[in-house]
Design goal:
Strand content: under 5%
Number of strands: 2
Shape: globular
Largest sheet: 2 strands, antiparallel
Number of domains: 2
Length: 499
């Protein structure tokens, strides 16, 4: 670490985050017309949400829909950037988050009774689950998007199979898409799904606020058929060589006002944290490098055991999820960041079970058909001891604000009446909230990767020793972070008491 710093070589984590930002920038340059069209879609929804604030006599029920709709837009933009940075699973997980919250918007808008059920979901979880269950017959598109996003994103890490299989297929809105295991093809397929999902999800949210808002959004985004046609054209445009669209790009520079502003704000938040919290950032960087070395070693010298080969691939997935998660957390996009941390915990759990026997590996390979069956669930569950317990703790904590993210929005709605609704649409992520997420990421990173190190210990003893020494060396820093967090919580409580 000291030697690298002295010659100013960026860490592997810094290079990886910079690479993802570069991929987004390259897409914007190479496909400016597509970027502009995507921005127009986002800007249309953004504008209608802001005008919805001015609805006369806005009730708390309607305010909840507006605030949740704003969250849907946040998750969809995060999903779009994840697609463009070639994070396939992560993007679909963010879309699942958006679909779930859009589903809540639709049901809250239906009746005051549903709104009360949603408000009391913590105290009457059974009634909440029954009321807010997806119904495929009436919500075909949303339910189907949820199913796809769960299979490939949240609960699937299915794209890992792209290393093993030439292609896979997914169906959405009665149209089949072929997903091929090449980055460009994955981007194409996910962008098609994103556009269709974005239109359908946001029209559903607008409908929850009544015909006038629905009509305004339809007018803003134009004819739905034209938007869907755009999605179908993406495949041809993205597959074309860059010089085939260069003349178009020369005539029209990408206009990405909302998307560019979002990119800039994300970059500024990230850089501000790295500058102001240099010690914590260096700890995050230091954690990643030995894990990358361990994964690379096992990919190169892991032998011919197919089961261990798959575990190594999934180990790499865990690290990818964690890198995307910490970047989002440092950029103050906590909900999606927590969601990706939760995904990482699930994959750790699955790999621990796969490592136990060939029969477990067979069950995992058939998880699409067995996922909801008792024989699968009884085996693929977390153990409550050893390093795997940290994965379970992360899973539980990340479920509160991540995949079931509307839990924490209740607190924001309680400010309604004391603050303008416009302020609720731009809720500031507090330093305490961000620090809690960083602490969770740091304190669970070592134990979660220890689960993998234990599986491959005999094959990489020296590297495993370096990793464990690093975890031990950082224990004082983690304790210091925990103490700081405790002090921040105490100060926040005192401030609330005084107010």
């Amino acid at each position: 670490m000291e030697q690298e710093a002295s010659i100013n070589i960026p860490s592997s984590l810094s290079r990886e985050i910079a690479r993802r930002a570069r991929w987004i920038a390259e897409f914007r340059t190479a496909h400016s017309s597509i970027w502009s069209a995507l921005d127009e879609l986002v800007a249309a929804v953004y504008g209608v949400i802001r005008t919805a604030v001015a609805i006369p006599a806005l009730t708390l029920q309607r305010a909840a829909v507006v605030v949740l709709w704003n969250k849907v837009l946040e998750y969809e933009i995060a999903a779009l950037f994840l697609i463009l940075s070639k994070s396939a699973d992560q993007a679909l997980a963010a879309q699942r988050l958006a679909a779930e919250v859009a589903h809540h918007c639709a049901l809250i808008g239906e009746s005051e009774e549903n709104f009360l059920v949603w408000q009391n979901k913590q105290t009457d979880a059974d009634k909440y689950r029954q009321t807010f269950e997806f119904k495929s017959s009436s919500e075909g598109f949303l339910a189907h998007l949820m199913q796809i996003s769960s299979y490939y994103g949240m609960h699937g890490h299915q794209t890992a199979h792209f290393f093993l299989e030439e292609q896979d297929r997914m169906v959405i809105d009665e149209q089949e898409y072929v997903v091929v295991g090449r980055a460009a093809k994955i981007i194409t397929s996910e962008l098609q799904i994103w556009v269709r999902g974005f239109v359908g999800i946001n029209l559903g949210c607008a409908n929850a606020l009544g015909p006038s808002v629905m009509s305004k959004l339809r007018n803003e985004i134009g004819h739905i058929e034209h938007i869907i046609e755009l999605a179908d054209q993406l495949l041809l445009q993205l597959d074309a060589p860059n010089d085939a669209t260069s003349s178009t790009n020369a005539k029209r520079e990408a206009a990405g006002f909302i998307l560019d502003a979002w990119r800039e704000e994300r970059r500024n938040s990230f850089e501000t944290f790295c500058d102001e919290q240099q010690t914590t950032w260096e700890a995050i960087e230091a954690f990643v490098e030995p894990v990358e070395a361990l994964i690379a070693f096992n990919q190169r010298d892991g032998g011919t055991d197919h089961r261990l080969f798959v575990i190594t691939m999934l180990w790499e997935r865990v690290l990818e999820y964690q890198i995307d998660a910490i970047e989002l957390v440092l950029a103050k996009e906590l909900d999606v960041g927590y969601t990706l941390m939760r995904m990482a915990a699930e994959v750790v759990r699955d790999c621990c079970r796969i490592a136990e026997s060939d029969e477990n590996y067979r069950l995992w390979c058939d998880r699409k058909s067995l996922h909801e069956k008792p024989e699968y669930k009884s085996i693929f569950c977390f153990k409550r001891s050893g390093p795997e317990k940290s994965a379970l703790d992360l899973y539980n904590k990340a479920s509160y604000r991540g995949v079931h993210s509307t839990n924490h929005i209740d607190r924001e709605l309680k400010r309604f009446g004391d603050a303008q609704l416009g302020q609720l649409l731009e809720p500031a992520v507090t330093e305490l909230e961000q620090y809690e997420a960083i602490k969770l990421w740091l304190t669970t990173f070592g134990p979660m990767h220890e689960c993998f190190v234990s599986i491959f210990d005999a094959q990489c003893t020296e590297l495993a020793g370096i990793f464990r020494e690093m975890c031990t060396a950082f224990e004082p820093l983690l304790k210091h972070i925990a103490q700081n967090l405790g002090q921040m919580k105490s100060e926040a409580n005192n401030a609330r008491t005084k107010s």
